[in-house]
Each structure stands twice: as C-alpha cells, then as structure tokens.
Amino acid sequence: MGSKLRRIGIMTGGGDCPGLNAVIRAVAKAAISGGLEVVGIEDGYLGLIENRLRVLSYLDVSGILTRGGTILGSSNKANPGEYAMPDGKGGWEIRDVRDQVLEHCSEAALDALVVIGGDGTMSGAADLVERGLNIVGVPKTID
C-alpha cells in the first residue's frame, strides 16, 4: 500500500507562456481542497537548488488568472545535472547538484512535485524520477 500524500511542491520551468498561473491555481486549489499542503518553488529548478520554497494558500492563488507570467517565476538556466557554480578562483565549474535537490525536497517533506515545463524541464524531471522523486509533469511549450 502506498503512502498518503500530505505535501506537494509545484514549479514552473523554462520560458514564459500563457496559462502558467491557471495551472498553478488549479493544482493548488484542488490540492488544498483535498487536504494537502502546497509549496511553491520559486524560479523553477533554481528554486530547488537554492531551496527557495514558500507555502501557497488559497489567497496566494486567488485572482492570478488574469496576471501574465507565473507567480512562482521561471528559469531555463538551471539544470540540476549540469549546474554552473563559481569555482572559487574567479571562474565557473559545472557540478551535478541533483542530490542537493533531492535533499531539499526531503527537508521540505515534499511527497511529490508538479513540474510545469517544456523539454528541458521534463528531462530534468525524468532524472529526478529515476532517483526516486514522485513527479507529475505538465507539458508546455513556447515553440
């Protein structure tokens, strides 16, 4: 028997497009109505890497349908498998920070993520699923 969901995260990745706030609102309101706590992840994978999370309430997602963009922010620059970080010598190095992302999800007690994004975002989600994270993908594109 599977464990019961108690807390989910939601994030938007990639470029901006119409409808992102509608998805955030629908997921959050349905989840909250079902007794779940919803955590918004700011700026896509960057928010997971930097641990920038905030609990979303009905009030947070009310009145956002007519607002453009995404209330959570989005980024297409942060790939947890190939993340550019300062090397301490004035340059940059590429690091795999997927374990750090999983640790942040665990610390936040997230039972699952709802990931809204395109090809790159979904590829990153697939990598995290292979590492044991529960993810529902909501596809979107600006192409």
Give a brief outline of the structure.
Residues 7-143 form the Phosphofructokinase domain. This protein is α/β, with parallel strands linked by helices and 143 residues long.
In terms of DSSP E residues, the strand content is 15-25%
How many strand segments? Answer: 7
Count of individual helical segments: 5
Radius of gyration: 15 Å
Overview of the structural elements:
The chain has helices spanning 20-33, 45-50, 58-61, 98-107, 119-130, and strands at 7-12, 37-41, 53-56, 83-86, 92-95, 112-117, 135-139. It has 143 residues and is α/β, with parallel strands linked by helices. It has one domain: Rossmann fold (3-Layer(aba) Sandwich). The strands form 2 sheets. The protein has a 5-stranded mixed sheet, with helices on both faces. The model has no long low-confidence stretch (mean pLDDT 94).
What labels would you give this structure?
glycolysis, alpha/beta, two-stranded antiparallel sheet, 5 helices, 5-stranded mixed sheet, 32% helix, magnesium, kinase
